[in-house]
Write a structure and sequence with these properties.
19% strand, Rossmann fold, 7 strands, alpha/beta, disordered C terminus
């Protein structure tokens, strides 16, 4: 079987519709074992994070959606297989959340992004009408410090006409240029399922990349 055929089979093997709730965690210390591969979803409160996960998995009840920002303060893990997970991080940026809670959230998120060995990439959701807030920039900075790939989803793209939506995308892409191949962006609409295939392709590439698992022993030269 050719390498290309193996890759095609690998892509087909990842079924996002099979996602099931695994567990919640208040911090990294009580998260699932740090093994396998996972991709985290992060974004401001009401940026459409839960809706995106539900659209991706075709399960409207998998990730809770709420009109009350700042309600979810737990890290939620969803299993795709025994070794692959998607992770729903708490929404950030809600003004009414107490300062102490914001600081605690910041500490946990920075720790998660920089020390979680199984984390392969970050899906960062921004409302297409209000991208690159100070908190979004902070998330990008944390990911950059950890050399973590970031893919920006400009959500609620159906709220804008094509011209303004494209302009917003180009602006975000220009901001991400300094990160090279580590950062990318796309338009997305949960309502119209716009950009879903592109998102699935990015997630599949991250969750099925075995290169990060290559051991040092495999790289050592053989004895003469």
């Amino acid at each position: 079987m050719s390498t290309e055929d193996e890759q095609i089979l690998h892509l087909k093997a990842l079924n996002f519709r099979s996602a099931t709730f695994l567990q919640s965690a208040s911090q990294l210390s009580n998260a699932p074992p740090d093994s396998g591969s996972e991709v985290a979803f992060a974004g401001r409160s009401n940026a459409g994070k839960s809706s995106a996960i539900n659209t991706l998995t075709e399960n409207s009840k998998l990730a809770r959606t709420s009109r009350t920002p700042g309600r979810t303060q737990l890290i939620n893990f969803f299993s795709l297989s025994e070794t692959q997970r998607i992770v729903d991080l708490p929404g950030y940026g809600y003004a009414k959340v107490p300062l102490k809670m914001k600081r605690e959230w910041n500490r946990h998120m920075e720790n998660y992004l920089q020390h979680r060995q199984s984390l392969r990439g970050l899906i960062l959701l921004m409302d297409v009408r209000h991208p690159l807030t100070d908190q979004d920039e902070q998330m990008i900075a944390w990911a950059s410090a950890a050399t973590m790939p970031v893919h920006v989803l400009l959500t609620k793209a159906d709220k804008l006409k094509k011209g303004p939506a494209k302009s917003s995308l180009l602006g975000v892409q220009a901001r991400l240029l300094e990160f090279g191949d580590l950062a990318s962006a796309q338009l997305f609409s949960s309502l119209k399922r716009e950009g879903l295939k592109e998102l699935e392709k990015k997630l599949t590439a991250w969750l099925t990349d075995d290169s990060v698992l290559t051991s040092e022993t495999e790289l050592e030269p053989e004895d003469p």
